[in-house]
């Protein structure tokens, strides 16, 4: 059940699945729906206490101006530690997807006692902006779609959903499930509170636009060797947003990290990969 918690001095919307006596797993995405209900329930049924939450300016968490966030990436890392505090958890297994992977990496670096194991899904070792010279950049076709989008009425549900389905198609691997993507996009849209500027809110929830304007602070790639938590890197072989070289770099630079590649998969966690991802997560968090 969703509830509003106070973490690091802000109100965040969080939800748990499973028994409080089971091993805790903190899932970090942009909204809590980055990690689908059914995936969370499946982990909970296998004796994991799953905790997921909305970042600031996402979902039902505190919102100011997602296009001019008055907080930093390190504040979001402190928020994650605060989510653990609010649930009475000294530590947890931590998994971050996409931009949530940046928060997860920094949580493991700056609050190592809070992270039992680390799982990084579809992410990279550098913040928003140009990639390092040795890392692959976003695919040109994807960036052309993002930078030159068709006209979108961000106040209109049908317009937003149509645009985001096409964006999901560009982010996905060759086996794109349009119905599954549409359902997830509609759910994110319907959970977005219509307060302030609804267009800004929907852009932020659908595209994590706050990260484009966020102060990411000092680089951390050079510190990856300091991570002590056992680490699993999960990456789609056909990821056009953070191409596979990013996952390979994380696995190479974090001591002892394991790399699991998902064939035919983009920057996504579709249902068809859960039979591989869930057992891997269970092994890693045992």
UniProtKB/TrEMBL annotation:
Identify the keywords attached in UniProt to this record, alphabetized: Hydrolase
Domain of life of the native organism: Bacteria
Task: Enumerate the Pfam families for this protein.
Answer: Abhydrolase_1
Ranges for domain AB hydrolase-1 come to 42-266
Q: GO biological process annotations for this chain's record? A: glycerolipid catabolic process
Q: Which Gene3D superfamilies match?
A: alpha/beta hydrolase
An annotated Gene Ontology molecular function: triacylglycerol lipase activity
InterPro entries this protein is in? AB_hydrolase, AB_hydrolase_1, AB_hydrolase_fold
PANTHER family per UniProt: AB HYDROLASE-1 DOMAIN-CONTAINING PROTEIN, HYDROLASE, ALPHA/BETA FOLD FAMILY PROTEIN
Protein's name in the database: Alpha/beta fold hydrolase
């Amino acid at each position: 059940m969703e509830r509003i918690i106070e973490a690091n001095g802000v109100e965040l919307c969080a939800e748990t699945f499973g028994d409080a006596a089971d091993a805790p797993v903190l899932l970090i995405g942009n909204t809590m729906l980055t990690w689908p209900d059914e995936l969370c329930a499946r982990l909970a049924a296998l004796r994991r206490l799953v905790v997921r939450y909305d970042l600031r300016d996402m979902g039902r968490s505190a919102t100011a101006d997602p296009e001019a966030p008055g907080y930093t990436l390190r504040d979001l890392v402190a928020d994650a530690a605060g989510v653990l505090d609010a649930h009475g958890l000294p530590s947890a297994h931590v998994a971050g997807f996409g931009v949530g992977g940046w928060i997860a990496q920094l949580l493991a670096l700056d609050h190592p006692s809070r992270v039992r194991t680390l799982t990084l899904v579809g992410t990279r070792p550098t913040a928003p902006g140009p990639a390092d010279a040795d890392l692959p950049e976003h695919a040109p076709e994807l960036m052309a779609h993002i930078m030159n989008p068709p006209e979108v009425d961000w106040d209109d549900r049908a317009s937003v959903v149509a645009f985001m389905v096409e964006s999901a198609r560009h982010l996905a691997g060759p086996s794109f499930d349009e119905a599954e993507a549409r359902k997830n996009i509609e759910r994110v849209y319907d959970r977005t509170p219509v307060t302030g500027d609804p267009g800004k809110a929907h852009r932020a929830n659908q595209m994590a636009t706050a990260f484009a304007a966020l102060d990411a602070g000092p680089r951390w790639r050079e510190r990856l060797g300091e991570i002590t938590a056992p680490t699993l890197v999960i990456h789609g072989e056909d990821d056009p947003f953070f191409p596979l070289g990013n996952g390979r770099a994380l696995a190479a630079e974090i001591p002892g990290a394991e790399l699991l590649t998902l064939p035919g998969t983009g920057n996504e966690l579709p249902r068809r990969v859960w039979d591989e991802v869930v057992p891997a997560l269970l092994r890693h968090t045992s």
